Amino acid sequence: MKKLIECVPNFSEGVDMQIIKQITDQIESVEGVSLLDVDPGVATNRTVVTMVGTPDEVIEAAFLAVKKASEIIDMRKHKGEHPRMGATDVCPLIPVANITMEETVEYARKLAERIGNELDVSVYCYENAALKPERRNLANCRAGEYEGLAEKFSKPEWKPDFGPAKLNAKAGATAVGARDFLVAFNVNLNTTSTRRANSIAFDVRERGRVKREGNPITGKIVKDENGSPVHIPGSLKAVKAIGWFIEEYGVAQISMNLTNVSITPVHIAFDEVCRKADARGIRVTGSELVGLIPLKAMIDAGKYFLTKQQRSLGVDDAELIKIAIKSMGLDELKPFVPEEKIIEYKMAAADKQRLLVKMTATGFANETASETPTPGGGSVSAYLGALGASLGTMVANLSAHKRGWDERWEFFSEWAEKGQIIKDRLLYLVDEDTRAYNKIIDAFGLPKKTEADKAVRKQAIEDASKYAIEIPFKVMEVSLQSMDLIEAMAKEGNPNSVSDAGVGAVCARAAVMGSYLNVQINAAGIDDKAFAKKKVEAGEKIMAAAIEREQLVLKQVYKVINKD
């Protein structure tokens, strides 16, 4: 499995697209790195860039981008609404897949050292990559911004972690960090008042507001025994926020960084801002996402708002995303295109593979009927399983919305959610079966000139053949799991849809039997006979169970149809 990290450098240029393109061209020149998003802001004069790839390649791409920015952005001329201290203001690394935070920290420090040594740019390490506790907070590293760097460098306690302790007047300084996934999320208000927006921001952000004696605005600041201001905490954890006025939209916003969406998700932040704004006589009109967001965050938001409506949560991802967009007004200022704003969708778009599940029904049938060996029985079996699970899920959703059954919506919603998970697993296996076949073909294509070559080739064929057994076996397991859903819907679901549950059972049984044929034929060709015997015997039990479950469902279906 590939290790993947995300890098989200922020460059101090948001107006001149030619400058931005020169920087992003450097990123796109590195193989193994996908440029997922380029989000310029005119008012902030800042561009947020998102790239994903394997660690060494991402570090190379990030270094080239920072180098180019230091050459073509002049901080002596920079003005913008957002705090900043350098041509590349911040450059955080985020673990995405198969890599720990500790490993990501090592890569961040490696990048920071290279920037400091090779580009003569001062670098502070922040968040998890911080070398000093007081530098974990980015706000501390950036305090004083670009204009205060010269004075800052004169203080021993603020000597940069890497690079010179003197001002690079053109490039400024850069903060390189390692952090969890951060969502930059702005909430739009029906006011132009920055002061009122800030008041709401102070209400919700974790740090809160400075405590004052008497009047909360003009009163004397309360300080602790060390002489530091005392803060009244805000209502949201893991949230940083300020209020500002965005001239290009003519509205004030609450600009938030959600530093850990597992603690405070976007939908909770949105609703809390709505409550605090309403208490101050201000309306929230929508919101804006800067950069990318994980798919799970959007799915969770969709489910949150459907739950408030007492609607079934077992709908597909596209519908959940649509609910999230409309509920939070993410499309108020500009269109919200999921394929451009959701990180997993951007990564999928960058993958040039032709997926079977993206074809039309006609296209899939025609591809199957062609003279190529894939897709074959394995992919078709997985798709049959997906259709069976889909029918069970449909009955659950129809039942959740049946008139007079309102008190049972959660029962059916839970079943529909399980059905969506099973359906998605089986759809993944549709294409994975083809990949398994291709692994075998690739293994047979390996060189066999020397004895060493032959040994490598033989092992590769054996491993690929085992994988070609594992995939249809997984289809069998997951398709059998769908029988729980289908049987429950035949017994408890909307009686008008009971025949759909019956068809679902037939599809699930066919998926199991079809996949078992693939398990058997691939098991016959491997050297590890113990492995083959184990899979064949386990598969036989799954097939027997699927046939038995199908008969139970059909018996129930005929009972309802015939009203016996």
Distance between the termini: 54 Å
Number of strands: 13
Largest sheet: 7 strands, mixed
Structural category: alpha+beta
Q: Which stretches are low in confidence, meaning pLDDT under 50 for 5 or more residues running?
A: none
CATH topology label of the largest domain: Four Helix Bundle (Hemerythrin (Met), subunit A)
Mean pLDDT: 93
Describe the overall structure:
The chain is of the alpha+beta class. It has three domains: 4-178, Formiminotransferase-cyclodeaminase, Chain B, domain 1 (2-Layer Sandwich), CATH 3.30.990.10; 183-348, Alpha-Beta Plaits, CATH 3.30.70; 357-562, Up-down Bundle (Four Helix Bundle (Hemerythrin (Met), subunit A)), CATH 1.20.120.680. Helices cover 52% and strands 14% of the residues. It is built from 17 helices and 13 strands. It has helices spanning 17-28, 55-72, 101-119, 138-142, 149-153, 194-204, 266-279, 295-308, 317-328, 338-341, 343-350, 361-369, 377-400, 409-444, 451-492, 498-523, 529-562; strands spanning 4-7, 10-11, 33-41, 46-53, 88-97, 122-127, 173-178, 183-189, 209-210, 231-232, 239-246, 251-258, 284-290. Strands 1, 2, 3, 4, 5, 6 and 7 form a seven-stranded mixed β-sheet that branches. Helix 8 packs across helix 9. The longest helix has 42 residues, at 451-492. It is globular and about 80 Å long.
Sum up the structure in keywords:
Four Helix Bundle (Hemerythrin (Met), subunit A); single chain; alpha+beta; 14% strand; Formiminotransferase-cyclodeaminase, Chain B, domain 1; Alpha-Beta Plaits; 564 residues
